């Protein structure tokens, strides 16, 4: 079973949090995915609601894939615990990804240094200014840099998750996941 840990930090963007949960969690495969939402605390605040998370950030370290959901205010400091978790997971060989402004967590951890990355177009200039060692491309839906992946904002997270399913299980399974989401498997970005 492929373990997917979705990190929920305070100020999480609800849509970004649910995309990987639904994409990976709804697939019926013999050796599919198990999704865990790992929170910064037992309760995580978003602008619309507060959620309770059964797993802690530390429990994400042993996942096969770690996905950082977007945060509402990327100008705030990234929590040290989140930086430590994504670094440790990457060191253990996990695939690490971000949706939207979750890229700021990967950048703070140094995982995007020397790489091409993307984030929501409204935050792209801030990411590039704060982390000049990253080549920020705001004109794509997602960037696949092997073990580290980033997506632009909102629905581009779905494009990224479908891409990861395709990498893991092939085109037919990814097409099934897209069909479940009532979304195109591939679409142009920019």
TrEMBL record:
<dbReference type="Pfam" id="PF01965">
    <property type="entry name" value="DJ-1_PfpI"/>
</dbReference>
<feature type="domain" description="DJ-1/PfpI">
    <location>
        <begin position="3"/>
        <end position="166"/>
    </location>
</feature>
<protein>
    <submittedName>
        <fullName>DJ-1/PfpI family protein</fullName>
    </submittedName>
</protein>
<dbReference type="InterPro" id="IPR029062">
    <property type="entry name" value="Class_I_gatase-like"/>
</dbReference>
<dbReference type="InterPro" id="IPR052158">
    <property type="entry name" value="INH-QAR"/>
</dbReference>
<dbReference type="GO" id="GO:0006355">
    <property type="term" value="P:regulation of DNA-templated transcription"/>
</dbReference>
<dbReference type="InterPro" id="IPR002818">
    <property type="entry name" value="DJ-1/PfpI"/>
</dbReference>
